[in-house]
Every structure is written in C-alpha cells, then in structure tokens.
Fold:
Amino acid sequence: MEVIHKIGRRKTAVARVYVAEGKGNITINKKDLAAYFPTATLQYKVNQPLALTNNDGNFDITVNVYGGGITGQAEAIRLGLSRAMCELDPENRLTLKPEGLLTRDPRMVERKKYGQKKARKKFQFSKR
Structure:
C-alpha cells in the first residue's frame, strides 16, 4: 500500500493527512498526538474515524495542519482521516456518512461591516 494523501478543512484550519501502513503512530506537526492535543475531547475527535472503522493501530498517520484554533484543527484532521478511510475501503463510507464525518462544515466567521462595531453589533446610539 502506498501513502494516501487527503485534505480536511474546518473554518480557517487546513489539515494535510498522510496515511501509511504501520503500528498506529499519529504525528501532528512533528509532535505526538497527546502532546499536540492535550485534552481528551480533541484526541477523541481525531481518533473517531479510526475507531468507527476498526482501524485503531493499523496505520501510521502524519498530519501537517495550520490555521484556525485547536478545535478547528482537530475537526479538519478528522475530516481528512475520514476521507482517507473511505479511499482505503469504500465500505467505510457506510459507517462514516451517517455520523456526519464526511461533511465539510461550511460555517465561517462573518465579516465585519463598515459603520458597525462587529459583524452584526451596531455602535451604541445615544440621543442627548
């Protein structure tokens, strides 16, 4: 099996995921998974596609991720991994699709408008 390369995005985070056969090592930006994502919730999000497809410990995963915050980065990695699992075995699509792991979340930050304090908040009006 050659290396599978997939891209996942969420908000402004972009993750390039490389999946190869191995012992289950997950490296993110040259750091271990536990070092890069210290909270259990984020580690769970990254491991979700592997757990659902019963591929824990079967592949070495290398990820380059940039942009966004840590939650956006974790969800971008999850999307990239889900796409890679589908390329490995088309049967995985049937388990990942109902969980919503193959859907690119389109929500982005709304831009600030001129004449306003933020995207929707207005400047305070006082009539003195």
Helices lie at 33-36, 40-52, 70-88, 92-96. The chain has a mean pLDDT of 93. Residues 48 and 78 are 7 Å apart (CA to CA). The chain has four helices and five strands.
